[in-house]
Amino acid sequence: MTRDEQERLERSRFAILSAARASGAVVMLIGLWIWHGNILREGGFVALGGPLFVLGFFQSLILPQILARKWRSPRQP
After folding, report:
1. What pLDDT score does 38 carry?
2. Residues with Cβ < 8 Å from 28, sequence gap 6 or more?
3. CA 33 to CA 54: how far, in whole Å?
4. Contact predicate 45/34, CB 8 Å
5. pTM listed for this prediction
């Protein structure tokens, strides 16, 4: 793999990690808004907002760590 290909791969992986974090934060906010707001029904909708919040939490905090660990290059002696 040439240096240019390696840099392109690193940039695309960084973009994927950043997009996962940002979109996860948006899903978390939407989940909180549905959970505690009067969007879908009076007093909030826990049955939909709670799982959305958990999904966004996983997507923004845990998924990037899993991907980074998978993509990490092996140690060279």
Report:
1. 87
2. 52, 53, 56, 57, 60
3. 13
4. yes
5. 0.83
